[in-house]
Every structure is written in structure tokens, then in C-alpha cells.
Amino acid sequence: MTSNKTCNTVFQTILGRRSDLDSIADAVGLEWAPGLLDALVQPTPPPLSFFLSFPEPRNGLWGIYVVILQKKARKLRKQSKAISYFGSGKANDVRGAGIRKRTNTYKDDFTYLPDMLFKAVHQEGYTITHVRMVCWMPIPAPALRARAEGLVLALECSLSMTFRVIRPMKSDSQYDHLLPWTAASVEWRPGCSHYSMIERIRGDLKMSAEEIAIIDVQRKARAKEYHRKYDANIQKNIDDKKRATNHVSRNRILEEKRFYCDPCDHSYKGERALADHLKSDKHRDAIKGVQKPVNTTAKYARRKAARAARAAARTYYCSLCDQTCDDQTALDKHNTSNKWHMENVAAQAAGLPTRKRYLKAQAARREVDVDGESKGLGKTL
């Protein structure tokens, strides 16, 4: 295959001699599916079931895969030939998917299936039943990737021609005498539309290994940042949608009174909130008919004014901490168990300065008299 229409001329540089192919295959650790090499030297092609024994695609590998399509209706499978398609997976993504990044797209509902497979699925009643690996290698080092990609594409082309999975072309007569089996002898129809060796090989074969390694590090960094932003954006969209849904759901729950307490005439947003309410004193008081006085604004203002008056008069006052308490009980508790007070007592005994934790709050309160008018008293020592 030396014609520019059927072969990229770069392959002549990479695989000009058989020794080139062997050295690249050894360098990348090429492996074959069990029994494949033996099948290639048999006088008759293997049955379709032969492909089903191959391993399924795995992460961290490059390789060639076969896709099998059969009729959706099982009773029609004996009447209609299956379709076989050979492809290759050579992804360099930072997540190491490799061949699986390609094979995971072979679903009946995938929009960008290869043209012949798309028509078979959507017009002829076929379904994708199996995807298996034909040969594989670990994702190669950056310096080997261009040559490894050339090897994969060349093997894909050779195997596709050998197993008769490429649609008939005018140029077939040039190669038919080199192939072991005829198109009529295989149990499947072709699913490939072109020779893979016309495809472009990524990478620059003229670059040194060091230059390729530097470029690969930069590429991975860009890809990693892209995936980070992409994942963050996806998560943000999910969170926004969930938040909006939850908001609507909560409002609907309240409106429909799904978690409703009839004695208290109050609706809650969830079962747990309702359960907590049923255990509360407020609910028990409502059941017993007890009505507690409401803390009105006027009452709150009176309490605030009384507190300010005590602060100004230094009633129930701890000079060590500069703190005013509400009553004698609170002051006694402060003097005996308050952490800050005990530390200040120890500091005073040691001749160290005490900590005025409440100084600003007390000063602010002393600015207000009983009537709530500014007196400008400031701090009184």
C-alpha cells in the first residue's frame, strides 16, 4: 500500500522495513488476543464466536478493538449476517483511559458512530453486542507515541483487510491475492469504510526525546487544568439545579402541609423537623393549652433599660473582669466558675495584668441610661 490514496507516506518512514516494525513492537510491549496469531495461518476464517473470547477493553492501554453488531431481534440473527468493525484507541488523556476512551462510545444511542455502523443501528435494526480487544500495549512513553501510533494504525489496516471488515473498494483487486480468505467465506459483513493507514499520525518524528517529554508535560498540565475547570463547572451546574429544585420542593411541602402540626398550626419542611417539634416544650404546652406570655417589644426595651441601669450603677459588678451580671446568682456563678474570672484571679495574684474581655461591651452599655438616652459617661474605674 504505497499509493497516497490508501497510505500516508509517513508510514514508509516509520515502517519501511520489517525490522522497524519488530523493534517498535518490542519497545511498546505489544500483546495479541489468545489464539489470534494461530487463526491467521489457518486455511479457513474463524467463526464469529472467535472474537467473543477476546478480552474486554481496559484502562491504561492502547490497542485495536473489534465491534460486533447483530440484529436486535434474536430470531433474525440466523437469517442476517453480523457486522464486524475494527478500530483503534490511542487516547493520551491524563486520566489514562487509553483505548476505553474510544470503545466507551460504541453505544446504540451515540450520535457519532462510524457511518456504516450508524446506518446499521438506525436503519437496519442492528445493535452493538460486543466490543473486544484484538491486540494492545501499555500507553507508550511520549518519545515512542508517534511510532507506536503508526504501528497501531498499520496493524489495524492489515487486520481489517485480513478479516474482511472493510467495505468493497475498486482497489481490492490489488490486494486480494495477498489475503488468506475471501469476503464470501467469513460469517460477517464489513463495517469499516476506509483504510486506517490514510490517517494522520500525531507528533513530530524529527523532535528529540527530551523535546517531546517537555511538550508532553505541558500538554498534561493544560489537560489537567481543563478537566479541573470542566468538572468544577459541571458540579456547579448540578449544585445550582439541586438548590433550585430543593427550594421549589420545600415551598411545595410547606404549601401542601405534608409535615403539619395541627395543634400548633405550623407546617415543617421535613419529617425530622416535625419529629423534633413534637418532642419540644412548645408542642407539649400547646397540647395542654398553656399559653406563655409573649416577649413584646416594650418588655424587651424595659429589660434592656434595666440592664443598662445596672451597668451604670455597677450593681452585681465584677471589677476584676469589668463585667456586670443580671443578678446576684449570676455574679456568684461568675466568681466561682467563670474561666476568664479564674484566670484573672490567678493573674492578679501573680502581679500580671488582667484581661478585660467585656470592656467594650460594658463601655457601650454605660453610654446608655435607663431611658435609652446618651449620657456619655465613658468608663468609670
Please name the defining characteristics of this protein.
single chain; 381 residues; alpha+beta; two-stranded antiparallel sheet; 14 helices; 12% strand; disordered C terminus; zinc ion binding; C2H2-type domain-containing protein; zinc-finger; Znf_C2H2_sf; zinc
Q: In one word, what is the shape?
A: elongated
- Class from helix and strand fractions: alpha+beta
Uncertain spans: 358-381
Biggest sheet strand line-up: 1-4-2-3-5
Contiguous helical run count = 14
How would you spell out the order of helices and strands? HHEHHEEHHEHEHEEHHHEEHHH
Radius of gyration: 40 Å
What is the CA-CA span between the terminal residues? 103 Å
Tally of strands: 9
Percent helix range? 40-55%
Average per-residue pLDDT, rounded, comes to 83
Query: How would a textbook summarize the main sheet?
Result: 5 strands, mixed
- The percentage of residues in β strands lies in 5-15%
Protein name: C2H2-type domain-containing protein
Keywords: Metal-binding, Zinc, Zinc-finger
Pfam family, one: zf-met
InterPro entries: Matrin/U1-like-C_Znf_C2H2, Znf_C2H2_jaz, Znf_C2H2_sf, Znf_C2H2_type
